[in-house]
Amino acid sequence: MAKDPPRIKLKFSNLAACFGVVISTLVCNFSSAHANWFKQQQDIMGTRISVELWHKNESQASQCIDKIFTEMHRLDAMMSPFKAHSEISFINNNASTKTIEISNEMAEIIDRSLYFSKISDGAFDITFASIGYKYDYRKKLKPSDQLIESSLPSIDYRHINLNNNTLRFDDTGVRIDLGGIAKGYAVDRAIEIAKRCGIDEALVSAGGDTKILGKKQGRPWIIGIQHPRKKSEMALVLPLSDTAISTSGDYERFFIRDGQRVHHIINPSTGKSVSATWSATVTGPDAITTDALSTTIFVLGAIKGIALIETLENIDAVIIDNEGNVHYSSGLQEPTSND
User: Fold this and answer.
1) Which domain holds residue 336?
2) What is the b/e burial string over 262-279, where b = at least 16 CB atoms within 10 angstroms of the residue's CB?
3) How many domains does the chain have?
4) Distance between terminal CA atoms of the chain?
5) CA–CA distance, 194 with 211 (Å, rounded to integer)
6) Is 132 contained in some domain?
7) Using CA atoms, how far apart are residues 194 and 241, in angstroms rounded to an integer?
8) Domain of 275: which CATH number?
């Protein structure tokens, strides 16, 4: 039986407001002292993409940033289930009735997704979309319990038959969605582009997924983990460099129905929103891993989630449960409480 991970009670203090002043001051001082730091943002993949990098030449920095955003748009066009001509839409429209050919890149991403499904015993499962597509968070619509129940047999990663570049679904009701891994993959691709541009220091973020290249002028980046119930506050802050960090939370895409929070992180075993976790954060060497694992441990919950993290090398995690307790893996120092 897995042991309870270390935990502390989350303090409902104005940590972010105090810390935010420090961050703002550092950024302002940095900008005036180092004019070669460049930052741009665009809305792509259903979220805000932010690129920050240091370069001696403004023109070359701009060209590099343009290449990164071009890549982000390409990946969005390939993996968005909301675009009729995307590869993922082609898969969902055809793979349940016949064997289809897919791109090498898509095959690699699906294969990586299946790896996380296997190590988590299905807690991470891209076939959650078999019922997930019936949720509409903007219109505050959720499927009926009867529809959820009838769709559960289609939610099973073992229905995915991937053989090199060919794909077929065993069940006619299967749909897939790469939302739990796509942005992490995109962030990794962006950092690879930055490296090819000769960049040594950069940060690329896509919603809750961030990859850091090097440091920020010799100092670690300070990354805040948002308080899951108070938007203007941070629950924790971490100094990081040359790493990836991803956070999955129930506070970005949700609505309240009958007193229950209905959000986008679906438990594959129930077809419904996870209720035992508020947020899950994972650090590791690459963002495709941290992205998938943050979703995975969010679904597993604190005890099973931290137990899984402890079996993986160079991976750490922080989970905030639905009582405000903070659970962290052994590789992270216990956060300092604010008394």
Assistant:
1) 1-35+229-236+244-339
2) bbbbbbbeebbbbebbbb
3) 2
4) 33
5) 11
6) yes
7) 15
8) 3.10.520.10
User: How far, in Å, CA of 54 to CA of 111, rounded?
Assistant: 34
Distance CA 42, CA 49 (A): 5
Same domain, 12 and 98: no
* Residue 163 tokens, joined: 């053989």
Is-contact 93 101, C-beta < 8 A?
no
Give the contacts of 115 (CB within 8 A, at least 6 positions apart).
none
How far does Cα 146 stand from its chain's mean position? Answer: 30
The structure tokens listed for 323 are 């009582």
pLDDT per position as a tens digit, 166-184: 999 999 999 999 999 999 9
Chosen domain end from 169, 197, 214:
169
- Answer whether residue 48 is part of any domain: no
Q: Are residues 326 and 265 in the same domain?
A: yes
pTM of the model: 0.88
d(CA 56, CA 200): 11
Quick one: tokens of 182?
């796509």
Nearest CA to 194 out of 52, 311, 83, 45 is that of: 52
Q: Tell me the sheet residues that pair with 316.
A: 283
What count of residues does the chain have?
A: 339
Give the rounded distance of the alpha carbon of 141 from its chain centre.
Answer: 23
SS3 content of the chain, % helix, strand, coil (to 5): 35, 25, 35
83-141 pLDDT per residue, tens: 999 999 999 999 999 999 999 999 999 999 999 999 999 999 999 999 999 999 999 99
